[in-house]
């Protein structure tokens, strides 16, 4: 039983690492993922806020991968010593973590996600980075002199922050030192993974849903990628006739006589 649990945990981690490699090939502008030493199930993330009162702030947060990933989403927290909490964003809590339908901290959020939002097994770390850029912009605070003053403090402190666990700083977001040297800044929130244009929630959802489960790539990202359409095949309960049994093996007629094929939209 112990070995089975370990194997299950490894599956979630391996899937996340595979997605991380894909992310490094095409990093989402304004984001960067860091691997934490000796913690294969934990990543740290820098996310640049590019609009609003927090424009210029680089939020540093951690992502913990569960055993049943990607069937269940990861959990996320703002780092404890980072100056950003529920005072600055109504859905970022010190203890409970980040409340969004793309993370598992608050299960009901993911379970009640609307048609064009929320985590699905087809999502990847790349799609999560896109979603979290938008999440940090939607802080749901009414602008006031006090809030604007605090927002400036958040921006300034984030620029001088250095993580004690992964040594990341805000400057790491801009140095272009990801695995392939790709630049990771300068594009507004809601950009696609190649940073070419703003995309709609429907398009973001499509990137999550229309994906090859083996290569974790979407036809929307790679025009050479092909995916199949699932069908539900049910056998007739009645025994095969003598005529059917004599049909050529593998023939279309034999298949249609022995199988009841129903397509579900």
Compose a concise summary of this entry:
The protein is an alpha+beta fold. It is built from seven helices and eight strands, in the order H-E-E-E-E-E-E-H-H-H-H-E-H-H-E.
General description of the model:
The protein is of the alpha+beta class. It has two domains: 2-209, Ubiquitin Conjugating Enzyme (Roll), CATH 3.10.110; 232-262, no CATH class. The chain is built from seven helices and eight strands. The protein has helices at 2-25, 107-111, 125-137, 145-160, 201-209, 242-245, 252-258, and strands at residues 31-35, 42-48, 58-64, 75-78, 92-93, 97-98, 232-235, 259-262. The strands form three sheets. It has a four-stranded antiparallel sheet. A hairpin with a 6-residue loop joins strand 1 (31-35) and strand 2 (42-48). It is globular, with a radius of gyration of 23 Å. It starts with a helix and ends with a strand.
């Amino acid at each position: 039983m112990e070995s089975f649990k370990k194997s299950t945990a490894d599956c979630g981690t391996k899937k996340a690492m595979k997605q991380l490699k894909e992310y490094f090939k095409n990093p989402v502008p304004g984001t960067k993922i860091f691997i934490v030493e000796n913690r294969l199930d934990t990543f740290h993330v820098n996310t640049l806020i590019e609009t609003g009162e927090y424009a210029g702030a680089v939020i540093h947060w951690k992502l913990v991968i569960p055993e049943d990933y990607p069937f269940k989403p990861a959990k996320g927290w703002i780092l404890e010593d980072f100056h950003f909490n529920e005072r600055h964003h109504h859905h970022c809590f010190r203890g409970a973590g980040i409340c969004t339908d793309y993370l598992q901290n608050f299960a009901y959020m993911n379970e009640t996600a609307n048609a064009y939002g929320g985590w699905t097994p087809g999502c990847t770390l790349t799609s999560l980075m896109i979603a979290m850029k938008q999440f940090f912009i939607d802080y749901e605070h009414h602008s006031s002199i006090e809030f604007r003053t605090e927002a400036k403090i958040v921006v300034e402190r984030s620029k001088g922050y250095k993580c004690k666990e992964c040594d990341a700083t805000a400057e790491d977001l801009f140095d272009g030192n990801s695995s392939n040297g790709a630049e990771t800044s300068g594009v507004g929130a809601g950009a696609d993974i190649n940073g070419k244009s703003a995309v709609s929630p429907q398009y973001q959802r499509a990137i999550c849903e229309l994906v090859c489960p083996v290569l974790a790539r979407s036809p929307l990202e790679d025009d050479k990628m092909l995916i199949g359409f699932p069908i539900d095949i049910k056998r007739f309960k009645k025994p095969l006739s003598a005529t059917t049994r004599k049909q050529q093996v593998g023939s279309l007629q034999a298949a249609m006589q022995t199988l009841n094929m129903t397509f579900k939209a």
